[in-house]
Design goal:
Chain A: Pfam families: Trp_halogenase. Chain A: Its EC number is 1.14.19.9. By secondary structure, chain A is an alpha+beta fold. In chain A, 32% of the residues lie in helices and 21% in strands. The relative contact order of chain A is 0.18. The chains are: A alpha+beta (473), B alpha+beta (484).
Chain lengths: 473, 484
């Protein structure tokens, strides 16, 4: 029976874990021990966090007021990620937080789109996504709960200052830190953590939220799966640019000759990170080494690795908060009933499947890049990819289908949007799309497009929404 | 261009479901669908119990429920009652719904397990079970439960034949006596009927039943046997008159060397005995069945033989096997029609084009194999998790070595009440819970969050609410518009 849970790491991951545990397990004593240094608990990915559209609901479920958090963390809204320079040096695409198009007679929109393209018409999937069109137009309003409205066809994520987010999560948890980490006492398991003042904290279960250092998990290690063969960036530089004006309602992942730049717009500036390979772009000031991969077993003995201690993968899209939220839900659902039970193995199995699915989505961006003539990108295009991704690419190439495995974080729509955006075109479209008369098909596409344009025209500008919520002056 | 000339070989439930679905989905394409069947070859279609997915199939085809029930003499089905499985005298129902609702963020079954018998029977937390126990039925109106049908599969095939022919499907009567294959690709080019007519096509759907006329006899797809896990290999079907109220339930009663089914339709009750010939004789099996039916038989016994398992490849070249030609899993969980429906759906998703990308077949085979294996594991669970020690058959089932995939699932539930989740699959968490806790497999430990203030009161309120709602439902016959 677990009575005490200790958390090591007082960043976003540690305080998010504390909040989740305090709310779900009122009978358990939770102690949080802070570590020194910058908050890299979700990875050294810049001073701003971007979330996927499930995060606002998580906050609501955990008693965090979204408006107050946004104000405390220079927050702004996100409708997706603009991905530029990957499909080709001058090309960009958009991964929207929402649906793209609408099916017709049970045939998926991207299959209809493929047939429209076959008639010689150019078509961009993003033009049929309300989230993408609104993002491009700099508009934002929260979606409608009415499923009949086109304004329900999208969700939104949040862009938040990392320190502000951690502080808000801490405040919501109602906990005070137990002290500063000095060292872990390990004897087969973590028996205690010694604090700076020499006192010791004991717990039945430890959550390692200390980031890539993995102060506890690395002591009980079953190994780290190295992903550098697929994800070539091994250095990152955290960036911050002070800026006035209205932030765009989306994040940005911009590729350049030897890496890519992440941008997460906040009110008053842009947090970000520059990802690159040291061999091709040496001597960047402030460069932090980055060993992308995941822990072979996220839960070993009495230590559960969370956040970047469990999986370190470049945040092409805002999946780090989602990975952490899912990990916490999984942990709470699999809290050990007694020692020696099957919970750690099942937890680790599920965590690995989810982490690997995100890894594959990241690799996709490299494998299908269109930057020919640049050594870094030519090598990425030529690399062999993991088996599950290989099957997705093959089936997509064959007829535009993407088979999902159990436990994947991203949905089929995300995969389709990314593949299409990268310029990957299936050899064939769905044979049933032939059943559709061409005028009916074009009419359908036109109707969707008109609905979206009308809805976006009626939406307020992102700046107006931010001002109305007191987020910018 | 899609492979537009389609020949369905074999009528029966699989053949006509395939023809009807293709005719509907391919309307407007140049596709031409021909179905060949022979009146001389009987179909297996006995009374058929289904799971709720059939409603989606009918709805997609635009089939009205009342028309369908009238044509097939169908009844509503809220679940399957399993009698004498874990122990003689036990009964539990597998409904098409979740049990209870989470309390304090803790899954309901964990709360129930933590209460260790203080919270009444698990089935008190299922509205469809409570309705079924009372012989009542109401179509869900926003309620969190689903339902299926029990109907005459022969009449359903006839109904779909009318549907298909009205949409341009051409029916040919005759027996296939020869199959011609392309020397180079090995693809089937044509079949020849008795009398000499030659039918060519691009795509052949093999709905010829157990023998697999095209998929096995012509293309030698191979068969993966699962008899070491599912030893039943014969069945006898025997209809009788209805006695008493028509239950909105299929019943599966464990016997000494297998189990008997009872499927109530509007006009009769379908009965049958699925048994293992290694553990009982055909005569004994018939005696068991006669002892289990509620009224004198209305027809001669219809005897069937089968081998549990599946074709190694269900799509080979330009031949796709659907129905019994693709494999056989005993109808313990009413999955026969569902597996047909699933194969049709996958075929439509991966509908071949004239260039025959081999990935279509590979993906179809991967998905169908996964589904067959998951249903297989679910069936094995019923046999394996028993305390019965009263016959050689049950001693075998209790002690047999499980597939690894099932052993893992079972261990996790036994230890901690955790149901292994997957993305796609016929039976999801509530189904596994119904069978685990019904057999019963009792978790040694449960979620440490379970219990606490208010849990008992919340459960009592759920029980009372469900009982009252079930009590207020109309009788099943009334819901069917039949005299009570």
């Amino acid at each position: 029976m677990i009575r005490d849970i200790g958390i090591v790491g007082g960043g976003v991951a540690g305080w998010m874990a504390a909040l989740a545990l305090v709310r779900a397990l009122p009978g358990i004593r939770v102690s949080l021990i802070e570590t020194e240094g910058p908050d890299w608990s979700l990875g050294p990915f810049g001073p701003a966090e971007a979330s996927l559209p499930d995060f606002p609901a998580w906050l609501g479920d955990h008693g965090v007021d979204e408006g107050a958090l946004l104000r405390a963390a220079r927050g702004s809204f996100s409708l997706g990620t603009a991905v530029s320079g990957w499909a080709a040096r001058e090309a960009d695409w958009f991964l929207p937080f929402g649906t793209i198009g609408a099916p017709l007679a049970g045939i998926a929109f991207h299959q209809l789109a493929a047939r429209i393209r076959e008639t010689g018409r150019a078509l961009r999937l993003a033009d049929f996504s309300l989230a993408a069109v609104a993002a491009a137009a700099g508009r934002f309003a929260r979606p409608s709960p009415d499923p009949r409205s086109i304004l329900s066809s999208y969700g939104y994520g949040l862009h938040l200052d990392r320190a502000g987010l951690a502080a808000a999560l801490r405040a919501a948890s109602g906990l005070e830190p137990a002290g500063e980490f000095n060292r872990a006492i390990v004897d087969g398991a973590v028996t205690a953590v010694e604090l700076r003042d020499g006192s010791r904290v004991v717990a039945d279960l430890w959550l390692d939220c200390s980031g890539p250092a993995a102060l506890l998990a690395s002591r009980l290690d079953q190994g780290w799966e190295d992903w550098s063969a697929w994800l070539p960036c091994d250095r990152v530089v955290e960036t911050w640019i002070q800026m006035e004006g209205v932030p765009p309602p989306h994040a940005h992942a911009g590729a350049f000759e030897t890496g890519w730049q992440r941008t997460v717009p906040l009110a008053g500036g842009q947090g970000g990170a520059l990802f690159h390979a040291a061999a091709l772009l040496p001597d960047q000031p402030g460069a932090i080494p980055l060993a992308q991969g995941r822990r072979a077993a996220a839960w070993t003995g009495n230590v559960v690795a969370l956040g970047a201690a469990a999986v370190l993968v470049e945040p092409l899209h805002g999946w780090n908060l989602a990975l952490l939220a899912n990990a916490l839900a999984r942990l709470i659902g699999l809290l050990p009933a007694a020692p020696g039970g099957p919970e750690p193995a099942e937890y680790s199995r599920l965590a690995a499947a989810e982490a690997d699915s995100v890894r594959d989505f990241a690799i996709l961006h490299y494998k299908t890049n269109g930057r020919t003539g640049e050594a870094y990108w030519d090598a990425a295009r030529a690399m062999p990819v993991p088996e599950a991704l290989r099957r997705k690419l093959d089936l997509h190439a064959s007829r535009g289908r993407v088979p999902l495995e159990d436990g994947e974080l991203l949905g089929a729509d995300d995969w389709i949007a990314a593949l299409d955006g990268q310029g990957v075109r299936p050899r064939r479209y769905d044979a049933l799309a032939d059943a559709m008369a061409e005028p009916r098909l074009l009419d359908h596409a036109e109707r969707v497009r008109t609905l979206i344009l009308d809805a976006v025209r009626a939406m307020p500008h992102h700046g107006a929404t931010l001002r109305a919520e007191g987020l910018i002056a | 261009m899609l492979a537009g000339r389609i020949l369905v070989v074999g009528g029966g439930t699989a053949g006509w479901m395939t023809a009807a679905a293709l005719a509907h989905k391919l309307a407007g394409t140049p596709a031409r669908i021909v179905l060949v069947e022979s009146a001389e070859i009987g179909t297996v279609g006995v009374g058929e119990a289904t799971i709720p997915h059939i409603r989606h199939f009918n709805a997609t085809l635009g089939i009205d429920e009342a028309d369908f029930l009238a044509a097939t003499r169908g009844t509503y089905k809220l679940g399957i009652e399993f009698v004498d499985w874990g122990r003689k005298g036990d009964s539990y129902i597998h409904p098409f719904a979740e049990f209870g609702a989470p309390i304090g963020g803790v899954p309901f079954h964990q709360q129930w397990c933590a209460a260790r018998g203080e919270a009444g029977p698990f089935e008190a937390y299922s509205l469809p079970i409570q309705a079924a126990r009372r012989g009542r039925f109401r179509r869900p109106d926003g309620d969190p439960y689903n339902y299926a049908y029990q109907f005459d599969a022969g009449l359903y095939a006839k109904f779909l034949r009318g549907y298909s022919e009205a949409r341009g499907v051409v029916r040919r009567e005759g027996k296939v006596i020869d199959v011609a294959r392309d020397g180079e690709s090995g693809f089937v080019r044509s079949v020849t009927l008795e009398g000499g007519e030659v039918l060519e096509a691009d795509l052949f759907v093999d709905c010829s039943g157990f023998r697999g006329l095209l998929i096995e006899q012509a293309l030698h797809a191979g068969y993966e046997e699962w008899t070491h896990w599912l030893p039943c290999d014969r069945a006898i079907a025997l209809p009788c008159a209805n006695v008493g109220p028509i239950a909105p339930l299929t019943r599966a009663t464990a016997q000494d060397a297998g189990w008997t089914w009872r499927i109530p339709l509007q006009h009769r009750t379908g009965n049958g005995h699925v048994y293992a010939s290694g553990f009982t004789s055909d005569e004994e099996a018939l005696r068991t069945l006669l002892g289990a039916i509620a009224a004198p038989p209305m027809a001669d016994p219809n005897r069937l033989r089968f081998v549990a398992g599946k074709r190694r490849r269900q799509w080979v070249g330009n031949v796709v096997a659907i129905g019994l030609s693709s494999g056989f899993l005993e109808p313990l969980e009413s999955t026969s029609i569902h597996l047909i429906q699933l194969a049709i759906g996958r075929l439509l998703d991966l509908f071949p084009t004239r260039d025959w990308d081999p990935l279509d077949a590979a993906e179809f085979n991967r998905l169908m194999a996964l589904e067959y294996e998951r249903v297989r594991d679910f069936l094995i669970l019923h046999y394996h998790c028993t305390e019965r020690d009263d016959s050689e058959f049950w001693r075998h089932c209790r002690t047999m070595r499980l597939p690894d995939s099932l052993a893992y699932k079972l261990a996790l539930f036994r230890e901690r009440g955790v149901v292994v989740q997957y993305r796609e699959g016929t039976f999801l968490e509530p189904s596994w819970l119904a069978v685990y806790l019904g057999q019963p497999v009792t978790p040694r430990r449960c979620d440490p969050r379970a219990g606490g203030a208010g849990a008992a009161a919340a459960m009592a309120a759920m029980r009372a609410g469900i009982a009252a709602t079930a009590e207020a439902m109309p009788a099943h016959e009334a819901a069917l518009g039949m005299p009570a």
